[in-house]
């Protein structure tokens, strides 16, 4: 978990999203079961890039919203056709809260496949889990270094950390090794 809180500001609903983007800000929202109401926010595009590169999508991120600390996870990132972030959704979470979260899959050992003139075709970049927020990993690692031509990885084949449940359909194809 990151120790430093990222400072973001509440956003006036009078500020149109298009205007914010032109001034280098990204509009967003913080919502959660334990909030009275959603909090519209804005964050500097540069700070957002820093936040996202230092934290994965599943990690808990402390946000300082007008001098009030809120632990959140990134729930959704909306991008335009050029890949620029145009909106971000944060979910406020409490300790031991049970949430559903999509977690990215990282493949290790692809260089060994390349030595065999094989390539890993990735079909499903993330898996959905449910569990206490502290137990959900930032990502799932799968070692593919010993795989061979036409080997497949299904969701049911991965090792799941204790205390969390796989929500993704077990027969979902994650990746296949091809020539």
From TrEMBL:
Residues 99-178 form the Large ribosomal subunit protein bL25 beta domain. InterPro entries: Rbsml_bL25/Gln-tRNA_synth_N, Ribosomal_bL25/Gln-tRNA_synth, Ribosomal_bL25_b-dom, Ribosomal_bL25_C, Ribosomal_bL25_long, Ribosomal_L25_dom, Ribosomal_uL5_bac-type. Keywords: Ribonucleoprotein, Ribosomal protein, RNA-binding, rRNA-binding. One of its GO terms (biological process) is translation. Residues 8-90 form the Large ribosomal subunit protein bL25 L25 domain. It comes from the Bacteria. Pfam families: Ribosomal_L25p (PF01386), Ribosomal_TL5_C (PF14693). GO terms for cellular component: cytosolic large ribosomal subunit. One of its GO terms (molecular function) is structural constituent of ribosome. Belongs to the bacterial ribosomal protein bL25 family. CTC subfamily. Part of the 50S ribosomal subunit; part of the 5S rRNA/L5/L18/L25 subcomplex. Contacts the 5S rRNA. Binds to the 5S rRNA independently of L5 and L18. This is one of the proteins that binds to the 5S RNA in the ribosome where it forms part of the central protuberance. This is Large ribosomal subunit protein bL25. It comes from Clostridium frigidicarnis. The gene is rplY.
């Amino acid at each position: 978990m990151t120790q430093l809180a990222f400072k973001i500001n509440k956003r006036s609903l009078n500020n149109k999203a298009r205007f914010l983007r032109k001034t280098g800000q990204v509009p967003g929202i913080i919502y959660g079961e334990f909030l009275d109401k959603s909090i519209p926010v804005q964050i500097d595009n540069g700070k957002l890039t820093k936040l996202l590169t230092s934290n994965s999508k599943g990690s808990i991120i402390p946000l300082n919203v007008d001098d009030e600390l809120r632990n959140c996870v990134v729930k959704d990132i909306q991008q335009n056709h050029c890949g620029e972030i145009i909106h971000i959704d944060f979910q406020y979470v409490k300790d031991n809260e049970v949430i559903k979260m999509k977690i990215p899959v990282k493949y290790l050992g692809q260089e060994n496949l390349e030595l065999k003139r094989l390539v890993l075709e990735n079909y499903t970049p993330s898996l959905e889990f449910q569990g206490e927020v502290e137990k959900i990993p930032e990502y799932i690692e799968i070692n593919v270094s010993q795989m061979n031509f036409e080997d497949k990885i299904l969701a049911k084949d991965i090792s799941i950390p204790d205390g969390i449940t796989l929500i993704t359909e077990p027969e979902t194809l994650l990746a296949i090794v091809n020539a």
